[in-house]
Amino acid sequence: MAIIFNETTKEFHLFNDYLSYVLCVLPNGHLGQLYYGKRVSEQSSYTYLLEKRQRPLTAYVFEDDESFSLQHTRQEYASYGTGDFSQPAFEIISSDGSRLSDFKFESYRIVDGKPNLKGLPHVYVEKDNEAQTLEILLKDVVSETQLCLSYTLFSNKPVITRNARFTQFGQEKIRLSRALSMTLDLPDSDYDWIHLDGAWGRERHISISPLHKGIQSIYSLKGSSSSEHNPFIALKRPQADEHQGEVIGFSLVYSGNFLAQVDVTPFEQTRISMGIHPEGFEWQLDNGETFQTPEIVMVYSDRGLNGMSQEFHMLYNKRLVRGVWRDKKRPILLNNWEAMTFDFNEDKILALAEKAKTVGVELFVMDDGWFGERNHDHAGLGDWFVNQEKLPSGINGIASKIHELDMMFGLWIEPEMVNKDSNLYRQHPDWLLHHPKRSQSHSRHQFTLDLSREDVYQNIYQQIHRLLSENAIDYIKWDMNRYMTEAFSVYYSKNHQGEIFHRYILNVYRLYEALITEFPHILFESCSSGGGRFDPGMLYYAPQTWTSDNTDAIERLKIQYGTSLVYPLKSMGCHVSDVPNQQVKRLTSLDTRANVAYFGSFGYELDLIKATSDELEKIKQQITFYQNFRHVFQEGNFTRLLSPFQNNLVAWQVISEDEKTIIVGIYHLLIQANGVASRIQLKGLVPDATYLLNGKIYRGNELMSIGILIKEELQENYKDFVSHVFVLERKDEKDGNFET
Ligand code: DGJ
User: Fold this and answer.
1) Domain span at residue 307?
2) CB within 6 Å of ligand 1 — which residues?
3) N or C: which end of the chain has fewer CB within 10 A?
4) Which has the closest alpha carbon to 534: 246, 316, 329, 684?
């Protein structure tokens, strides 16, 4: 790995074994880009890649030169108004109303390691030799603004992270009306673009389409990253698939409004832009103030989509998630929500917990309904003290009884919200996001607290801090059940109203940071009506996320398959629930429900009191199975094999860190008359190694080229939605003699 600056050609070369990224100072002092992609050899210069030619209807930079235009030059952090007519990375409004800027190269520094992003989630390093960071300083002399573009190159990963930072050093106030995290210009447009879309209950479905000329984009203006779109896109070559070919993944480490856009110019160049959505955004900078954009993570893969995903998984598991829970086994939990909703008391909770103990559950979670007047979803949010009628011995009473059962105890909170029927609202009616002369929209009868305000922040912090310090809590599910509307704050002056969405998210991060620092033993799981805020920003604070409120095993195949494009199995809360499924009324077997949920942080979300003794016995076996192979599911290398978006037969596999155990999940959606015998070809095995499967020995190359033959396993009882989980153990010669 190295980052080199060539003083003569003014080129920066960033390269490691996997990728090269070449930047240069352009003739006008702006920063240009010459190459990003698979590793290429060191050249003394790549400036031959700059286009210098005359074209009609083109604006040139220098009066005596008809060869250099910004429109036909790949720029690093593009500006608008001086010759590049595409949408820019940023826009500054000066005090005279001008939106022009001219950021020229000033200086650079290269440091070992990776500096932290203050107040924002980010990927980190543990040792300085894991990465190098290049910071390039540019200056606009007219508005007296400095721009720092930061690039971190990881030594042994095909990963570059980027961010931008604006600092106003002049006396004049400026307003940033657009400040994306990056633009990246690519020289052609021969790509399919991939994104994860959906809605509540069907989050992160994979969408793939060829690029077309003009703009294609996804975004959120909902105040959170949202169920509808995820802050991630990838470009893949049309021939690339799950297992081979070139793919570039872009993941924004942010949880609020975002824009992810691909713009193909008439000249077939492609500009990828990602960052905070400019709609409604404006940030004022006074003298000495700084604006820091969120971080973008770029992964380059020449091993197809799985190659990209595996890099994201490793990076996010080990260098985004933090704290003791990063490396600890995630407990198997039972959550009482689907069993009870708001209808519970101490006796009911303890009866369910006792039952949970008998089957081996490790963590009991008491969901919504334990606080204030929370007997339904019209009341209580904002009042984070126990409802004594339901729970007379308080949270600690319940927690200690659950601890006596030798289980951990977890609790649900939704600290960003308030119901009008609450003490908090009655005392502070102006603490909602709202405009004083306009009505407010509600969602699930709740309103968003104006967390951008310091007094609101302090109140919520004090309440949750008290809750966590006075009670023996091991796990918190932090929910957020509505999108933001009327994002106006009576606390701020008119010049700061464009900052509210971002200030809100900054204070959500601040609240998380304070609580995880003070209570490091607590495992946090984020949630937003299921997976409405499943993003890397949240994972920096909460190591796992409730993947979706939709717990139907068949629907979950798509949700988990899509989520795995970016997010590791360990980060996905995956639970077995009752049938008929609450969301889609489908009947699936307990086996299939578990066979899907194993591929995540496993748990249950059903009423064990009503379960039959056969069901309880099966659940006990499932829990033992997961405990035996938890390290494989949570730490292993995951590969998607057959997609639920294209096939009737769905498959995925995970290989343990020591490569000794392989677990393959196979799901047959609809039974077919006179069905075919299928073969599932595995990936990533050692070709000559021997693997034991169902008492028979196979060679790695056999399993990868011929595959596992699927016959009777999926024909059981001739039913829809049959599944099977295969466990293969690698056997070394010294383990004994095997027949092959
Ligand atoms: C939405 C979550 O996704 C559910 O799991 C549950 O916690 C409810 N909120 C509680 O209100």
Assistant:
1) 2-319
2) 337, 367-368, 412, 479, 481, 527, 529-530, 546, 549
3) C
4) 316
